[in-house]
């Protein structure tokens, strides 16, 4: 799991929230799988040109964000939704579908649009073998996590929680290999920022590129 800050700035977030106010919303259980259908209690924006324009702006921002690209290496966006939780709504424990719209899902993300003080509860709870972590981020920030992880959205007791959620196929299927490439990206940036384009940077770039070429699907 990786927290990714400032995918959108506050002006962009405010504009997207305003645009979302004019959208129609429907029962979120419509896109839930068989076993999650009974525990999904939220709404999501109906597919329209206006909704798709919002999602296109978010996708563009993600594609231009260096950390997101380094961590996810997205090949396909299988699906993106605008989800809304109001008082009394929640999404019980579940694991997202392995295949969405014909694409293998490797990673999921939630990009928060609401101010944390605009709602109570509604934390994204991601479980692993050690603990369950509750995620509530500033608007414009995102969390990226394995689609295989069990997770839930806690009950909202006040206000409205608005977010863009999505699922993607990575060019690199193996999470351990994605972690290695992510670390190499971070190391390369650090050495380059400190020393400029040196032989050491060239070596790191060569290793990273050759590993990426070796591990990329397709």
Task: Give an overview in words.
This protein has 218 residues and is an alpha+beta fold. It is built from five helices and 15 strands. The protein has helices at 10-20, 49-63, 66-72, 175-195, 199-215, and strands at 2-4, 25-27, 40-41, 43-45, 74-86, 90-94, 99-100, 103-104, 107-112, 119-121, 124-127, 132-135, 142-146, 151-153, 156-170. Strands 1, 2, 4, 5, 9, 10, 13 and 15 form an eight-stranded antiparallel sheet that branches. β11 and β12 (132-135) form a beta hairpin. α4 (175-195) runs antiparallel to α5 (199-215). It is globular. It starts with a strand and ends with a helix.
Specify the structural class: alpha+beta
End-to-end CA span: 25 Å
Main beta sheet strand tally, sense and closure:
8 strands, antiparallel
Beta strand %: 25-35%
Low-confidence stretches: none
Could you tell me the number of beta strands?
15
How many helical stretches?
A: 5
Mean pLDDT metric: 95
Sketch the topology as an H/E string, one letter per element.
EHEEEHHEEEEEEEEEEEHH
Radius of gyration: 18 Å
What percent of residues adopt helix (DSSP H or I)?
A: 25-40%
Globular, elongated, flat, extended or rod-shaped: what is the shape? globular
